[in-house]
Structure formats: structure tokens, C-alpha cells
């Protein structure tokens, strides 16, 4: 079973959704047969590398709220994160461009360390409040997860993986994704948002049962199943 996850490093619900998905996957009896692929999605491709506003200020401006109301929004999201076992410090997050962070994940994927890269980047952003657009920060994370720092530095100096990041986002649009996180199972079923663990487990079981039924029924059945699982 192949599960593609479209997400952005700067999306709080993507981090929560990742953790909830992992809890659901841990309960899945065929979890060892699941291949997880991380796909890039940038919520704000025009975000600056060196932000001039705080996350609270950006939220207040975006939703037409006061700074205090924006802080309350952050508190509610932090409560959801805590329920998933995560620590968020949203009021002091550094909202920045995530292109290079996504490129680092692509580089890490070649070494089988993309999941680790996602974890370190999410923690750096939401818990430690580091600027994940900063080159030195990204190189430090690369070293922490065991990547060749020189190779990563060379990758950043070139345009490596930029087209792949953009292609991922275009593909999400083609799938009909309205936002992230967005999970696609076997290119047939989708689960949108930071669903509870049991929802992810339910989706995986559904796909498993239907795939097994297709095998049992033989080659006379239709070539694909186009049903969409979406909560």
C-alpha cells in the first residue's frame, strides 16, 4: 500500500495530521507493507526568507482579528497539538518561506531519511521556533539526521529539487486538494485534514479490504476503483 502525504512545513495541522496518521498506522495489521511518500505543498510560496511580521500579526491580518484573538486561535491549535503529543509554541513561530525546507526533504528521501527530515523540520518550526528558511539552520538539521552537509550545501547552491517541489504542488491541485494535509492512498482514496487516528486506520482498512476483494475476484473486474474516501 502506498500513501502519499501532501503537507507544508509551516502548517500546524500537517504536523498534527502526521502524528495522528502515524498512530493510526501503528494499529494497522499490514503497517509493514505501507510505503509512505512525502509530497511538497507550500501554503505561501511568496513568504519571505526573513519575515518582518510575527505569526500572531500575520494571523490577525489574514483573518481580520485582533492580536489577542489571534493568540487565542494559536492557543486552540496548541491544545490540539498537545492532544497528539506535540508541543507547539505558535506565538513565537518564525513564519518564513519553506521552499528550501522542502528541498531538504527531497534530498533526505534519497537517503531514506525523509520522515526524519520532516520530524526535525516540524520540531524546529513549531517547537523550537527556528527559521526553516535559514541556510545554516537547514544545514544543521541535515547534519543532525546524518546527511552529507557538503552535498546538501551544494544542492542549495544549485536549483536541485525546485521543480520537484513545484510539480508536487501542481499534482495536489490535479487531485483536487483544497488544502493540506492531504493523504492519498494507492492513488484512489483521499483523506483530508488532521483526522483522528481512527479515521486513518479506517481508511487503510477499507483500501486493504477492497484490494483483497479485487485479488479474490480475479482479472475479470475493472482495472481501477475510482471511489474517493474523504472525511
UniProtKB/TrEMBL annotation:
<feature type="compositionally biased region" description="Polar residues">
    <location>
        <begin position="220"/>
        <end position="231"/>
    </location>
</feature>
<feature type="domain" description="DSBA-like thioredoxin">
    <location>
        <begin position="3"/>
        <end position="204"/>
    </location>
</feature>
<feature type="region of interest" description="Disordered">
    <location>
        <begin position="212"/>
        <end position="231"/>
    </location>
</feature>
<dbReference type="InterPro" id="IPR001853">
    <property type="entry name" value="DSBA-like_thioredoxin_dom"/>
</dbReference>
<protein>
    <submittedName>
        <fullName>Thioredoxin domain-containing protein</fullName>
    </submittedName>
</protein>
<dbReference type="InterPro" id="IPR036249">
    <property type="entry name" value="Thioredoxin-like_sf"/>
</dbReference>
<dbReference type="GO" id="GO:0016491">
    <property type="term" value="F:oxidoreductase activity"/>
</dbReference>
<dbReference type="Pfam" id="PF01323">
    <property type="entry name" value="DSBA"/>
</dbReference>
Amino acid at each position: 500500500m502506498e500513501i502519499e502525504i501532501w503537507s507544508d512545513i509551516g502548517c500546524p495541522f500537517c504536523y498534527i495530521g502526521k502524528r495522528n496518521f502515524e498512530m493510526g498506522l501503528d494499529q494497522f495489521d499490514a503497517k509493514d507493507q505501507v510505503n509512505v511518500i512525502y509530497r511538497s505543498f507550500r501554503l505561501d510560496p511568496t513568504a519571505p526568507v526573513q519575515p518582518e511580521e510575527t505569526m500572531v500579526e500575520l494571523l490577525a491580518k489574514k483573518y481580520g482579528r485582533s492580536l489577542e484573538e489571534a493568540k487565542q486561535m494559536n492557543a486552540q491549535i496548541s491544545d490540539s497539538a498537545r492532544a497528539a503529543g506535540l508541543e507547539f509554541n505558535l506565538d513565537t513561530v518564525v513564519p518564513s518561506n519553506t521552499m528550501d525546507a522542502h528541498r531538504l526533504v527531497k534530498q533526505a528521501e534519497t537517503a531514506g531519511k525523509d520522515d526524519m527530515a520532516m520530524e526535525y523540520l516540524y520540531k524546529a518550526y513549531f517547537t523550537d521556533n527556528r527559521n526553516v528558511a535559514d541556510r545554516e539552520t537547514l544545514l544543521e538539521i541535515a547534519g543532525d539526521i546524518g546527511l552529507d552537509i557538503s552535498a546538501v550545501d551544494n544542492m542549495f547552491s544549485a536549483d536541485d529539487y525546485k521543480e520537484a517541489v513545484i510539480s508536487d504542488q501542481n499534482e495536489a491541485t490535479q487531485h483536487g486538494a483544497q488544502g493540506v494535509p492531504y493523504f492519498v492512498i494507492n492513488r484512489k482514496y483521499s483523506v483530508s485534514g488532521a483526522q483522528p487516528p481512527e479515521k486513518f486506520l479506517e481508511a487503510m482498512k477499507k483500501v486493504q479490504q477492497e484490494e483483497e476483494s479485487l485479488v479474490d475476484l480475479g482479472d475479470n473486474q475493472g482495472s481501477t476503483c475510482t471511489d474517493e474516501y474523504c472525511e
